[in-house]
Amino acid sequence: MIHLLAEYCRKQNLPVEAGFSPKLVRWAICCDSNGRYTGLVPLGDVDAKNNRGREFPRCPDLSQGEMIGGGLARSHFLADTADVVLLYSKKSDEPKLAKHEFFRELLRQASLKLPELTPVVNLLASAENMETIRADFVREKVKPIDRVTFRVESSFLIDRDFWHDWWREFRQSLSAKDATVGPRRRCFVTGEMAEPARTHLPIKGLGSVGGQPAGDVLIGFDKDAFCSFGFNQGENASVSESGMASYRAGLNELLSRSSVQVGNSRVAFWFKDRVEDAENPLWALLGEPGKADDLAARQRAIEFLRSVHAGRARKLEGNRYYALTLSGAGGRVMVRGWMEGSFETLADALTMWFDDLEIISHGGDTLAPPQSLVRLSDSCLSLRSQHASERKQGDDDRRRFSQSLFQSAMTGSALSDALPVRILAFLRPELSSTDAGEEDAPLQPNRFAVLRAYLVRFFRSKGDLVMSDAITPALNTALPIAAYHCGRVLAILAALQKRALGSVGAGVIQRYYASASTNPGLVFGRLIKNAQYHIEKLGPDKSRYLESLLAETMACLSNGFPQVLSLQEQGLFGLGYYHQIADLRKKRVVTGDSETPESDTPQEGAESDVTTD
């Protein structure tokens, strides 16, 4: 894994030298060649609402161990936070003062060999300049934690290379003071003999999934329990400093530009050979962060996947994908998962995923648009509740189940039983508590798309391919399981009641969905009896289609209504209910002042004379 990260770094031509790192700098303090202050300049996209500054690719960088080595308080070189560079803080403290003095002294020492730094040394030596700069900081609302650097005339010193050799020598001098030279060992990354890096620099970008703002260590041995055979620190996993810099640069780049948060973890992914974003199936699956959900782009990516699956697209043959799932805990990077395989295997798995998720839209006329994994998780597990404890439980469920969805999508495996349990647990109270006229609210296509995917994969995992194929995106009157047709019957009974009585407050769905979906044998006898009153009230002309449809559906229940439904049968009940509702909402042929069906005998997909709107 770390070898592949280092290989990615090499292919991307990332700067990998230890002691250098890309950094975002928010402000530049400007001066002339004599050190006279000429102003404060904002960097980055100044019009952006959340401007993070300009990124400089090779900034001097000390590890945490180097920052505190020898018991000294050190700072970074040429660029650091405003409170370190200018003592710009609401309160003064000893550590900040020590870092500020180290920053100035380091510049002074460097200027003895690098005259290009003399203007900055003169700038900071002037008390008048310091006060003027602080006043400008206040006016521009600079934050103490904003990173600042220097511009002399029109040149950013940090963007030039004249100081690089001096900086390398300075870091070597720190190593000589703070560490002892160890034996040479075989590097796990490069395969070459080298002195192991005793400590590894942190990985950035896991702050939202348990990581620390300063970063988290992927390889670290700061406890006796992590050491063995008398080895100390990094000797336990021999990685040279150049190898460490390579895998770190690669992983930092991936977390920054090619990763998505999935639940409580972050998934970084890449390919052996470059894949354009338009052809990257993982953006279609996960959704591209920071961008509006583009359904058209997702649909194009899915069509490309299907072309690969069908063998029509060959140019990516032989490519491989890699997906690394990470989180942070206690300052350490936790590797939660690792997947790799051929591009063709990935295309097959994701094509199957989007096929299994297909579901008819609520209107019954088209398929619902494909959704990203994160959007699916948010919508299918969102509880309409004002209780903080229930909302928090829903948030926890979404984070946990989005990881289950990702694992299933990437591998083609069955979905966890916990997923339909939560969807159905949310669906029943929402349908039961929905106000009259708002029956649509819980009927989100995304929920039933995930429910269908669960059922299809459940039967496929059992080897029952006939049954998995029978669970279609839209209504299937030939599906051979009674629970599915029980859901259909409930939808038809609700339509009959609404057509006969209009809005009645707590109707069939509100009062009986929860019990009918678990113990249909206990309630459907009473509901069928009540339906006869609705049919009589409507008369033969207006009830003809629904009465015929009810009889046809009841014929699918040759053994009567089941007494108890299993988890999978409860899922089929909900899917049957949704499919029948969607089918009833197809466009009707309007004749005169009443709605009539195209034919007296309803067929699958035929138009009827009823709407439930």
Structure description:
The protein is α+β, with helices and mostly antiparallel strands and 613 residues long. It has helices spanning 2-11, 64-68, 82-85, 94-113, 118-125, 127-139, 164-178, 241-257, 281-286, 295-309, 343-356, 373-380, 388-411, 418-433, 445-461, 465-470, 482-501, 508-516, 520-554, 567-584; strands at 20-25, 27-31, 37-42, 54-60, 80-81, 147-152, 155-156, 185-186, 193-194, 259-262, 265-271, 320-329, 332-342, 589-591, 594-596. Strands 2, 3, 5, 6 and 7 form a 5-stranded mixed beta sheet that branches. A 4-stranded antiparallel beta sheet has the order 10-11-12-13. Helix 17 packs across helix 20 and helix 18 (508-516) packs across helix 19. It is elongated. 39% of the residues are buried.
